Structure prediction request, 473 residues.
Amino acid sequence: MAVKQGEKGFQPLTEAAAGKVAGVASRGSFVTAIGVITATLGSAVGLGNIWKFPSLTGLNGGASFLLVYLLSTLFVGLPVMISELTIGRRTRANAIGALQKVAGSDRTPWLVIGVLGVLSAFFILAFYTEVAGWVFAYIVKSVSGGLLSTDPAVTTGVFTSLITDPVQSLVWQWLVLVLVGFIIILGVSKGIEQTTKRLMPVLFALLLILVVRSLTLPGAGEGLAFLFKPDFSLLTKDVLLAAMGLSFFKLSVGMGTMITYGSYYREDQNIPKTALTVMLADLSVSILAGLAIFPAVFTFGYEPTAGPSLLFITIPSIFASLPFGSVFMVMFFVLAAIAALGAMLSIFEVPVAYLNERFNISRRTSSIIIGVLLALVGSLAALSNSLTANLKLFGLTMFDLFDFTTSNIFLPVGGLLLTIFVGWIWNPKETEDELTNKGVIKNTSVVKAFILICRFVSPVLILIILLNGLGLF
Ligand code: TRP
Prediction:
């Protein structure tokens, strides 16, 4: 038997109303088709687009990385996403319960996907809340001024002084944790979902303004060449692994988030189409962020390889060269914070739901326990540029270690197991039933292609890139 979803369970949808779906009276469900898309997109779009994507693209050589990332999104990220949504809707259960249901046993080895998922949630949040903390700090700093400058020395200085200050690093991270924990305790209310739904288009519009400004800067040509003219000699095994890791991270797959979301999907929702739409929309946001940032990098003399600081040092420069720049900049960081919040909620929910359902601990207590644990583990990441800078494992600071192991090991292993399960273990009839909505949608070729990809393409690619990237093959 699957673990039962509590009455006050996570209802990531605006109009989430209990009992709309036949046979699952006690569970929430997405009611409108557009709500399904915005909810799924709300988890996918986050700091991954505006912070991680530009930083990794810059570090790994630009266009060639982007190309591998695109291929990986198509042949790895998307199939894993469809697999998760399918398992979720088929079972109408939380991530771990869903695996128990599809495997037909409570003690199935496939549970390892769920266990890795809970661990991943933990380690991702440890560094994600820190970056979100920087975003919150930048809202305050943009309001008070002093941030707007096209001089790299100034913008880099502001960022460096923030991240090397242990007190500011911790305070901002803990504030973020309290905020996320608080919202999770309340349950995801209509308010948050409605707000995210309305604000996403505003983020998109603001990004467009930035892109237009950036493309009219003198360094635009160089920025575009960096982003779109591939140099294949730059493709090393590390670059391949980073690109694949990003494709998991971006679509929020490999750790059960999408199983949970799929479990709230409507019976008539077209799963492959929804997944494709979300993937394309998410990709557009990332490309827009790249188009905004790289021309500025080359115009104002930054290094594309600046890594995690890239967003925080380039964005103020672009705004500094715009009329009403400070107003726009406040808006930009507020929206970035909202996008980050939506993504964090979908991650935080995974361990909370696990404690809540597995050990019968209330959502409130579960959230507090997870929040406190996260504050402890997270501070190791938060202090990575100050007090714990010398605490390294495999040559990586805790911040980098958590980031690397989740995206590049845990999520791919989860994805590998999920695609093997759907491709080889699960009865294809069940997959077909879900993907065609029990024969209503005539998309047999899509179903066939999907199953073939899950059998022969995704697991093989994941395995090769993973083993090769880790130097094991
Ligand atoms: N996709 C989100 C982003 O780009 C992060 C995220 C949300 C995530 N849920 C996840 C990453 C689950 C991995 C797994 O910011």
Observations:
- Residues 1-26 have pLDDT under 50 and may be disordered.
